Amino acid sequence: MGLSTRRIPLYERLARRYALAIEAGALRAGDRLPSIRALRAQDGVSTATVIQALARLESLGLVEARPRLGTFVRPHRALPAPQPTRPEQGACAVTHSALIARVLTVIGDERLVPLGISSPSPSLLPAEQLARAASAVFRGTAGAALRYEPAAGCPQLRRTVARRALTWGFAARPEEVIITAGASEAIHLALSAVARPGDAVAIESPAHYTTFQALEALDLKAIEVPCRPDTGLDLDALGRILRRRRVAAVLAVPSYSNPLGSCMPESAKRRLVAMLAERGVPLVEDDVYGDVGFARRPPAAKAFDRQGEVLLCGSFSKTVAPGWRVGYVLAGRYHEDVLLRKFALNVTTSSGPQRAIARFLDSGAYDRHLRRLRTALSESATRMRHAVARSFPVGTRVSKPTGGYGLWVELPKSVDALALYSAAVEEGVSLVPGHLFGLRDAFRNFVRLSYGHRWSDELQVAVQKIGRIACRMAQADADTPPTATGGTGR
Questions:
Q1: Which tens digit of pLDDT belongs to each residue from 86-123?
Q2: How many angstroms separate the most distant Cα atoms in the chain?
């Protein structure tokens, strides 16, 4: 999916330029586009190219041709954001693993259009540069990439991560960094260091399904904290929870949470760290999406940690190489405990990928890659939001993320996300049903759609397919005759 600029046809480049202008608001509903003659002269292209570009914009639903008048920007529905969540109170055991495994096995099928995978498309990754880095590593000194690394990880990569921490808002020493097999292992190790079986952990609502996997594996209970789709954790609600009962830890994604895409303001992160430090409650900070903000890299919550109570977990899976599974944890005062658990679990992380990523980061190419990646994700997110607005049933709400990889879509109550997921798979499209992101069946009419690929006709058609299925489900419920008691049939 995602062709390089050199291979994009002229008409598609012209269409993309006008599509971006429409979606950014530079061209608004009712505005007239330049005539075919004006576009031909303005861009130095043929009449056929202009006609193809206008046809492309029309197929996307962005413009409409009016006989003898010209081509005009179509009005589009501006969908509201989902409502702030209101999860049930109290600790709850987690039993999600079977459902998560069943859904993830299907959405990983390469024959499906990948709207379910929350990671970057291979076309957005620096494959050639990574290949050169890996080749240099394996040609290096006497098979060093084939040997065990120290339990804490490759010294070069630990230094590199410590330098990157400066861009996250704080200074760190290489000795504070532990390299892990992805962020999932980092979170698992961090939770096991700060909580014991049976303890309760406060989490976001909705929360990413890997949160539930970690809690279930460690026999921990979950207390869901309300969240806003723009600013994340409701700190007042969290404060009430902390006053009422013992919480072993808080696990949160302050920067670009998954699935909401929310980013806590800097002041809220500061307040979160302070209120937890006051009570001696550790924060396990999942910062895996911190580097994929559309505009800039926000400070991590750990930037405000003065007592070593924040365990920052991250990885290069969402930015560089998902399959290499290289992550890290800066565990503060829990460093030794986490390191002992890492050693007991799998001794160390694979040497070759660690060294190759360190070499790539040290080359200076990472920041250039991030700029390109952020631009592509921002464009794809905008295009997907507009596609949802044009295709999904009345009553739909959708998040407006400023980073990360997913849209959180609230559908009419009558649309069951698991049924929608199954029907979409039959149509060759993957998505993730909301059931995986909450407890007590709280998000049964929600789905997450991922925009980790460059926008394309294939993605456009896939979103339209999901929208058609959702519209049929919503209409079928509306057509259901009332029962004798005045309710709907069950």
A1: 888 888 888 878 888 888 888 888 899 999 988 899 99
A2: 81
Q: Which token pair is 190?
A: 């961090």
> Taking the model in full, what pTM does it have?
0.84
Backbone torsions φ then ψ of 409, nearest 5 degrees: -115, 120
The candidate with the shortest Cα–Cα distance to 348, out of 199, 157, 198, is 157
DSSP string for 393-415: PTT-EE---SBSSEEEEEPPTT-
Q: Could you tell me if 255 and 264 are in contact, meaning their C-beta atoms sit under 8 angstroms apart?
A: yes
- Rounded CA separation 253/208 (Å): 9
Q: How many CB atoms lie within 10 A of CB 59?
A: 13
How far is residue 155's CA from residue 130's CA, in Å, rounded to a whole number? 19
113: left (phi over 0), alpha (psi -120 to 50) or beta: beta
Q: How far is CA 179 from CA 331, 342, 347, in A?
A: 11, 9, 11
Angle, helices 351-362/127-138, rounded to nearest 10 degrees: 120
404: left (phi over 0), alpha (psi -120 to 50) or beta: left
Q: What is the pLDDT of residues 261-287, one digit of tens each?
A: 999 999 999 999 999 999 999 999 999
CB 289 within 8 A of CB 256: yes
Task: For residue 374, give the H/E element and its range.
Answer: helix 365-391
> In this predicted structure, what is the pLDDT of residue 6?
44
Which residue shows structure tokens 């409650």?
Answer: 281
CB-based burial of residue 262 (10 Å sphere; 0-12 exposed, 13-18 middle, 19+ buried)? Answer: buried
Going 211 to 212 to 214 to 219, the CA torsion angle's sign is positive
Among 136-140, 216-220, 322-326, name the one with the lowest average pLDDT: 136-140
Among residues 237, 234, 204, the alpha carbon closest in space to that of 222 is found at 204
Q: Where are the alpha helices (DSSP H) in 73-126?
A: 97-107
**Pair 354, 178: CB distance under 8 Å:** no
- Whose tokens are 């005062």? That residue is 333
Per the rule left: phi > 0, alpha: psi between -120 and 50, beta: everything else, 452 is alpha
Where does residue 295 rank: exposed (0-12), middle (13-18), buried (19+ CB within 10 A)?
exposed
Contact 294, 286 (CB under 8 A): no
Residues belonging to the chain: 490
Q: What radius of gyration, in Å, describes the C-alpha atoms of the chain?
A: 24
DSSP state of 126: -
> Rounded to an integer, what is the distance from CA 169 to the centroid of its chain?
22
DSSP assigned state of 344: H
